[in-house]
Amino acid sequence: MNIKAKSITIDVITALFILLFVYAALSKLSDFEKFKVQLGKSPLILAYARWVAWIIPIFELILAGLLSVKRFQLLGLYASFSLMVIFSSYIVAILKFSEYIPCSCGGILENMSWTEHLIFNSGFVLLGIIGVLLYSSNNKRFIVQ
Asked: Do 61 and 22 form a contact (C-beta atoms < 8 A)?
């Protein structure tokens, strides 16, 4: 793949992550009380729900900002990949170990089944891997443009 194609692919991947994180954060913040209550019903994060309810959308917006600035894109791609792995792991844990499965997602994502949500997240995990690998191969010395 040539450098121009890699750059376009990286731009598309970062745009998809930005869209996802801004949409998800604004969905959570627009109905914050509902989001916080649903997190409080999660058996895995019950004790930390109040803090997590603030941390997740703020972190998603910070990631969107990092991805928007070329200088911080690689860091943003690593962090996006990591966050999607965490979200996917949470879904697997909820499906395997919880009888009650609360949905704390907002917007159109809350209409997905947990299996569909896991597939969706896995797609973004894959995009994160591709983005990091392409970015790294495009900038062999990690010199930021």
From this structure: yes
Cα–Cα distance for residue pair 116/108, rounded to 1 Å = 12
The secondary structure of 90-116 as a DSSP string is HHHHHHHH-SS------GGGGGS-HHH
Residues in the chain: 145
Task: Answer whether 93's CB lies under 8 Å from 118's CB.
Answer: no
Domain boundaries, the chain: 3-138
| Closest alpha carbon to 10 in 64, 60, 77, 56 | 77
pTM of the model: 0.88
pLDDT tens string, the chain, 145 residues long: the values are 788 999 999 999 999 999 999 999 999 999 899 888 888 877 777 778 889 999 999 999 999 999 999 999 999 999 999 999 999 998 898 888 777 666 666 667 778 888 888 999 999 999 999 999 999 887 764 444 4
Sole residue written with tokens 């996802």? 20
DSSP annotation of 47: G
Distance (Å, whole) CA 122 – CA 87: 10
